[in-house]
Amino acid sequence: MRLWVCIALLSVVLCASADRPRAVQAMIRAGHFVRDAAGGARDMFRAYQDMREANYKGADKYFHARGNYDAARRGPGGAWAAKVIRWPFLLPHSDARENWQSGVSGRGHEDTRADQEANAWGRSGGDPNRYRPAGLPRKY
Protein backbone atom coordinates (compact mmCIF):
# COMPACT_ATOMS: atom_id res chain seq x y z
CA MET A 1 0.00 0.00 0.00
CA ARG A 2 2.78 2.46 0.90
CA LEU A 3 4.53 1.71 -2.37
CA TRP A 4 1.39 2.64 -4.35
CA VAL A 5 0.95 5.87 -2.38
CA CYS A 6 4.59 6.81 -3.04
CA ILE A 7 4.22 6.06 -6.76
CA ALA A 8 1.01 8.10 -6.95
CA LEU A 9 2.59 11.07 -5.16
CA LEU A 10 5.71 10.88 -7.31
CA SER A 11 3.67 10.87 -10.51
CA VAL A 12 1.62 13.86 -9.31
CA VAL A 13 4.81 15.77 -8.53
CA LEU A 14 6.35 14.92 -11.91
CA CYS A 15 3.22 15.91 -13.80
CA ALA A 16 2.86 19.14 -11.85
CA SER A 17 6.47 20.10 -12.45
CA ALA A 18 6.14 19.57 -16.21
CA ASP A 19 3.53 22.33 -16.55
CA ARG A 20 4.90 25.28 -14.67
CA PRO A 21 2.80 28.43 -14.45
CA ARG A 22 4.08 31.49 -16.34
CA ALA A 23 4.94 33.25 -13.10
CA VAL A 24 7.23 30.40 -12.09
CA GLN A 25 8.85 30.36 -15.54
CA ALA A 26 9.43 34.12 -15.31
CA MET A 27 11.03 33.71 -11.90
CA ILE A 28 13.30 31.00 -13.26
CA ARG A 29 14.33 33.21 -16.20
CA ALA A 30 14.99 36.07 -13.79
CA GLY A 31 17.13 33.78 -11.67
CA HIS A 32 19.16 32.77 -14.73
CA PHE A 33 19.59 36.45 -15.64
CA VAL A 34 20.85 37.30 -12.16
CA ARG A 35 23.18 34.27 -12.16
CA ASP A 36 24.58 35.28 -15.56
CA ALA A 37 24.97 38.90 -14.44
CA ALA A 38 26.90 37.86 -11.34
CA GLY A 39 29.10 35.57 -13.42
CA GLY A 40 29.68 38.35 -15.94
CA ALA A 41 30.70 40.72 -13.16
CA ARG A 42 33.14 38.05 -11.93
CA ASP A 43 34.56 37.72 -15.46
CA MET A 44 35.04 41.47 -15.69
CA PHE A 45 36.69 41.60 -12.28
CA ARG A 46 38.98 38.67 -13.11
CA ALA A 47 40.12 40.44 -16.31
CA TYR A 48 40.74 43.59 -14.28
CA GLN A 49 42.78 41.65 -11.71
CA ASP A 50 44.77 39.96 -14.47
CA MET A 51 45.45 43.35 -16.06
CA ARG A 52 46.75 44.69 -12.76
CA GLU A 53 48.83 41.56 -12.14
CA ALA A 54 50.31 41.47 -15.66
CA ASN A 55 51.21 45.18 -15.50
CA TYR A 56 52.12 44.90 -19.18
CA LYS A 57 52.38 48.08 -21.21
CA GLY A 58 49.80 48.27 -23.99
CA ALA A 59 47.75 45.30 -22.78
CA ASP A 60 44.81 47.19 -21.28
CA LYS A 61 42.74 47.01 -24.49
CA TYR A 62 43.18 43.23 -24.55
CA PHE A 63 41.93 42.89 -20.98
CA HIS A 64 38.99 45.21 -21.70
CA ALA A 65 38.01 43.07 -24.70
CA ARG A 66 38.57 39.80 -22.83
CA GLY A 67 36.50 40.79 -19.80
CA ASN A 68 33.60 41.94 -21.97
CA TYR A 69 33.87 38.86 -24.21
CA ASP A 70 33.81 36.42 -21.29
CA ALA A 71 30.90 38.22 -19.63
CA ALA A 72 28.81 38.48 -22.80
CA ARG A 73 29.23 34.76 -23.55
CA ARG A 74 27.31 33.91 -20.37
CA GLY A 75 24.03 35.10 -21.83
CA PRO A 76 21.74 38.12 -21.51
CA GLY A 77 22.66 38.75 -17.86
CA GLY A 78 26.37 38.62 -18.60
CA ALA A 79 25.97 40.93 -21.59
CA TRP A 80 24.05 43.35 -19.40
CA ALA A 81 26.80 43.26 -16.77
CA ALA A 82 29.45 43.87 -19.44
CA LYS A 83 27.52 46.89 -20.68
CA VAL A 84 26.89 48.37 -17.22
CA ILE A 85 30.29 47.83 -15.58
CA ARG A 86 32.85 50.49 -16.43
CA TRP A 87 36.63 50.45 -16.18
CA PRO A 88 38.04 51.19 -13.65
CA PHE A 89 35.45 49.66 -11.36
CA LEU A 90 35.50 52.48 -8.85
CA LEU A 91 34.19 55.00 -11.38
CA PRO A 92 30.57 54.15 -12.17
CA HIS A 93 30.00 56.04 -15.40
CA SER A 94 31.98 57.09 -18.44
CA ASP A 95 31.92 60.88 -17.78
CA ALA A 96 33.72 60.45 -14.46
CA ARG A 97 36.14 58.06 -16.12
CA GLU A 98 36.91 60.47 -18.96
CA ASN A 99 37.48 63.33 -16.53
CA TRP A 100 39.77 61.11 -14.47
CA GLN A 101 41.77 59.94 -17.46
CA SER A 102 42.22 63.32 -19.06
CA GLY A 103 42.84 65.18 -15.80
CA VAL A 104 44.89 62.79 -13.69
CA SER A 105 46.38 60.09 -15.85
CA GLY A 106 47.17 62.22 -18.88
CA ARG A 107 45.94 59.54 -21.30
CA GLY A 108 43.09 61.65 -22.65
CA HIS A 109 40.00 61.07 -24.71
CA GLU A 110 41.74 59.04 -27.45
CA ASP A 111 42.59 56.32 -24.97
CA THR A 112 39.04 56.37 -23.60
CA ARG A 113 37.64 55.98 -27.09
CA ALA A 114 40.01 53.07 -27.79
CA ASP A 115 38.99 51.41 -24.49
CA GLN A 116 35.32 51.74 -25.39
CA GLU A 117 36.02 50.26 -28.82
CA ALA A 118 37.73 47.26 -27.21
CA ASN A 119 34.79 46.89 -24.80
CA ALA A 120 32.29 46.92 -27.66
CA TRP A 121 34.42 44.47 -29.67
CA GLY A 122 34.48 41.98 -26.80
CA ARG A 123 30.76 42.39 -26.03
CA SER A 124 29.85 41.73 -29.66
CA GLY A 125 31.70 38.40 -29.59
CA GLY A 126 34.87 39.56 -31.32
CA ASP A 127 38.10 37.71 -30.54
CA PRO A 128 39.93 39.54 -27.72
CA ASN A 129 43.26 38.41 -29.18
CA ARG A 130 42.85 41.18 -31.75
CA TYR A 131 44.10 43.51 -29.00
CA ARG A 132 46.67 41.12 -27.50
CA PRO A 133 50.13 42.72 -27.50
CA ALA A 134 53.14 40.69 -28.59
CA GLY A 135 55.05 39.30 -25.63
CA LEU A 136 52.13 39.14 -23.17
CA PRO A 137 52.63 35.94 -21.15
CA ARG A 138 50.45 32.98 -22.21
CA LYS A 139 49.03 32.87 -18.68
CA TYR A 140 46.71 35.70 -19.69
UniProtKB/TrEMBL annotation:
Keywords: Acute phase, HDL, Signal. This is Serum amyloid A protein. PANTHER family: SERUM AMYLOID A, SERUM AMYLOID A PROTEIN. One of its GO terms (biological process) is acute-phase response. The keyword Signal applies. Residues 1-18 form the signal peptide. Belongs to the SAA family. The gene is Saa. GO terms for cellular component: high-density lipoprotein particle. Major acute phase reactant. Apolipoprotein of the HDL complex. Residues 107-116 have a biased composition (Basic and acidic residues). Residues 100-140 are annotated as: Disordered. It holds the Pfam family SAA.
